[in-house]
Amino acid sequence: MRNLAMIGGGQMGRALASGMIAAKVLPADQITVVDTDPRSVAWWQEHQPQVRAVGSLEDVDGAQVDAWILAVKPHLIAPVAEQLKPIAQGKLVVSIAAGVSLQQLGDYLGHERVVRVMPNTPCLVGAGASGFCVASDVSAEDCQWIEKALGAVGVVVQVQEFQIDAVTGLSGSGPAYICMVIESLADGGVKAGLPRPLAMQLAAQTVMGTAKMVQETGKHPGELKDAVASPGGTTIEAISVLEAGGLRSAMIEAVVASANRSKQLG
Ligand SMILES: NC(=O)C1=CN([C@@H]2O[C@H](COP(=O)(O)OP(=O)(O)OC[C@H]3O[C@@H](n4cnc5c(N)ncnc54)[C@H](OP(=O)(O)O)[C@@H]3O)[C@@H](O)[C@H]2O)C=CC1
Ligand SMILES: O=C(O)[C@@H]1CCC=N1
Fold this sequence. Notes:
Shape: elongated
Family: Belongs to the pyrroline-5-carboxylate reductase family.
CATH architecture of the largest domain: 3-Layer(aba) Sandwich
Number of strands: 8
Function: Catalyzes the reduction of 1-pyrroline-5-carboxylate (PCA) to L-proline.
EC number: 1.5.1.2
Main location: cytoplasm
Bound molecules: NADPH dihydro-nicotinamide-adenine-dinucleotide phosphate, (2S)-3,4-dihydro-2H-pyrrole-2-carboxylic acid
């Protein structure tokens, strides 16, 4: 893969491209970003000056592009893909839009070398979680490139298309839920008397360390939770409050609500 062009250089486009540049998947000067928002183009020029950032697809020589990433909002995929159709024939096209199916992408683009990816924002720091599925004309080499590119910025799994909405509900939207957990843990620390910066530091580290422990020990989270809760101690008091507040069912229903919304967006 030599040249990559990304249409839409907002939150997720920045996380993906900046993560790939940091991980040396592609040098910055082989990436072009097209974004119709001049403030976004200015962001790229300031923060990733070696990436070519332009305001219109007309400023890109499509013949020089080997792969396209569509990183605009889901309702803009149809017009953008139709604009791309004449210049991306036979080229690998990757969409990260929630809800937009491989069938829709193939219909808009007029070919089947298309990949649907659901990444998440921690790709920015090399700790993303992405799921992807592919249409019929995607080659084994294309899949290897996708795994290399997304694998460089986190964990990547290939899934069946019917599972992508669930991936969206869990890991695609998940960073927002975890940020709410971190923010509310910090609020609790402040309520209990800690200064805000210290509370935030402890909250983020607790989430990061616990996730690392789940991954590295391979132990069930229930077992790790039990190891924290001493009989008659502090933790079981807190667990009792969380159970009464419906933490588990709220998380489960949040994931399902996001997955259902992903289905609707298509
Ligand atoms: N944010 C996230 O955590 C995740 C997002 N996604 C998916 O990524 C996609 C992008 O989301 P996100 O990055 O949050 O969105 P953003 O709005 O942050 O970024 C999209 C950018 O594309 C610009 N844009 C709009 N129309 C065009 C066009 N025709 N050509 C080029 N650029 C255009 C937008 O400008 P303007 O603002 O002026 O419209 C904006 O700057 C969505 O489809 C979403 O479902 C997937 C996983 C996670
Ligand atoms: O909220 C959204 O629609 C996008 C998709 C997954 C994360 N953000």
